[in-house]
Write a structure and sequence with these properties.
Bound molecules: pyridoxal-5'-phosphate
Radius of gyration: 22 Å
Order of helices and strands: HHEHEHEHEHEHEHEHHEEHEEH
Largest sheet: 7 strands, mixed
CATH class of the largest domain: Alpha Beta
Distance between the termini: 53 Å
GO biological process, one term: amino acid metabolic process
GO cellular component, one term: cytoplasm
Pfam families: Pyridoxal_deC
Structural class: alpha/beta
CATH architecture of the largest domain: 3-Layer(aba) Sandwich
Helix content: 25-40%
CATH superfamily of the largest domain: Type I PLP-dependent aspartate aminotransferase-like (Major domain)
Keywords: Decarboxylase, Lyase, Pyridoxal phosphate
Family: Belongs to the group II decarboxylase family.
Number of domains: 2
């Protein structure tokens, strides 16, 4: 209500200095809370922005990576640029690569497997990149995901970062949902190696009590990032464009696709001030504890199988036909995924008002429906 009602538009600093300044402050707070290295924060020479979604953030980082590479190679070499991701990476990276002119045939989807917990290994990337380089192609961009969409898997950021550095690739860390967990010291380790990243993103609108839309994007080099996104028409010149070549203030229009923008900082500021770090850690830990309990109950019931060990709030398990029976009951809504040809049911404990009791109730519902399904098949 505050964000929409105030209708403040911090696209150039002069249009709303307080809103622009607040955004720089809350993205630094968020970065510190999840344990990001100093160099990704404004206070350390990097900086951040609040965008609408990871999808938008990814397009911006891909554009910056492309321009950085083509400034050295020449624009005519765009067809040589290759983007790397895993079969668990969010599909938005493929779409983003297409949008910035990378040929679809140059988008590499590296297979993951159960042996690495469905994480993308540095060895797999090294093998793929070495092959491409030998064929005259240029590795451009690598995505490491902390908490994949389907299974909640984690790619090892440090190992992938070292591979990216070896070839001058842009490393993006997509911590869309699981990044929130990193506010708890016991989860901070998953972002180890983030100092090797060119950009990191996470969505407070997923698991951080912040209303849609709000995606934090941090970059190590604001100059490289804004070079790909800035516009400088006469009518927008202000203190941020003071002709010195060095921005005197942040013009957030140069940090995103669109020009005008929402006052998202107020939402995140309210969440951070209202709950505080301790309150937010408690919130995350309550969900993780409920997910852990659910995973244990599933594992102890021999009719079910936990398909991938849980890391955060997502439990992936299986029993065919059960999903349809549970969802058609109208009492719970659960989604599925397919991994190694196996149909998997996913329970994500992420609702702002979800309590342990809801998890206990849904487990009773799952067991009841499982009995019906198994009886029908006389298993
Ligand atoms: N990356 C991951 C790992 C996700 O789980 C999701 C959404 O589910 C996205 C990116 C896309 O996020 P957004 O809807 O903010 O673009």
């Amino acid at each position: 209500m505050l964000s929409v009602g105030l209708n403040v538009v911090p696209f150039v600093w002069a249009a709303s200095p307080a809103a622009a300044e607040l955004e720089t402050i809350v993205v630094d707070w968020m970065g510190k809370l999840i344990g990001l290295p100093h160099l990704l924060l404004f206070s350390g020479g990097g900086g951040g922005v609040l965008q609408g979604s990871t999808c938008e953030a990814v397009v911006c980082t891909l554009a910056a990576a492309r321009d950085r590479a083509l400034a050295k190679l020449g624009h005519e070499n765009i067809m040589k640029l290759v983007v790397y991701a895993s079969d668990q990476t969010h599909v938005t990276f493929q779409k983003g690569a297409r949008l910035v002119g990378i040929p679809p045939s140059n988008f590499r989807v590296i297979q993951t497997s159960a042996s690495s917990g469905y994480g993308l290994t540095a060895d797999a990337i090294r093998a793929a990149v070495d092959r491409e380089v030998a064929n005259g192609l240029v590795p451009l961009y690598l995505c490491a995901t902390v908490g994949t969409t389907g299974l909640g898997a984690v790619d090892p950021v440090r190992g992938l970062g070292e591979e990216a550095q070896r070839h001058g690739m842009w490393l993006h860390v997509d911590a869309a949902y699981a990044g929130s967990a990193a506010i708890c010291p016991e989860f901070e380790g998953y972002l180890d190696g983030a100092e090797l990243a060119d950009s990191v993103s996470m969505n407070p609108h997923k698991w951080f009590l912040t209303n849609m839309d709000c995606c934090c994007l941090w970059v190590a080099s604001p100059a490289t990032f804004t070079a790909a996104l800035s516009t400088d028409p006469e009518y927008l010149k202000n203190v941020g464009t003071n002709g010195t070549g060095k921005p005197a203030a942040i013009d957030y229009k140069d940090w995103q696709i669109s020009l005008t923008r929402r006052f998202r900082a107020i939402k995140l500021w309210v969440v951070l001030r209202r709950y505080g770090a301790i309150g937010l850690r408690g919130y995350i830990r309550r969900h993780v504890a409920a997910a852990k309990r659910f995973e244990r109950m599933v594992a102890e019931d021999e009719r079910f199988e936990v398909v991938v060990p849980r890391k955060f709030l997502l439990v992936c398990f299986r029993l065919r036909e059960l999903l349809a029976a549970v969802n058609s009951s109208g009492r719970a809504f659960i989604t599925h995924f397919v991994v190694d040809g196996k149909f998997v049911i996913r329970l994500a404990v992420a609702g702002a008002m979800t309590e342990m009791q809801h998890v206990m109730d849904v487990w009773a519902l799952l067991q009841g429906k499982a009995e019906e399904v198994l009886r029908r098949h006389q298993l």
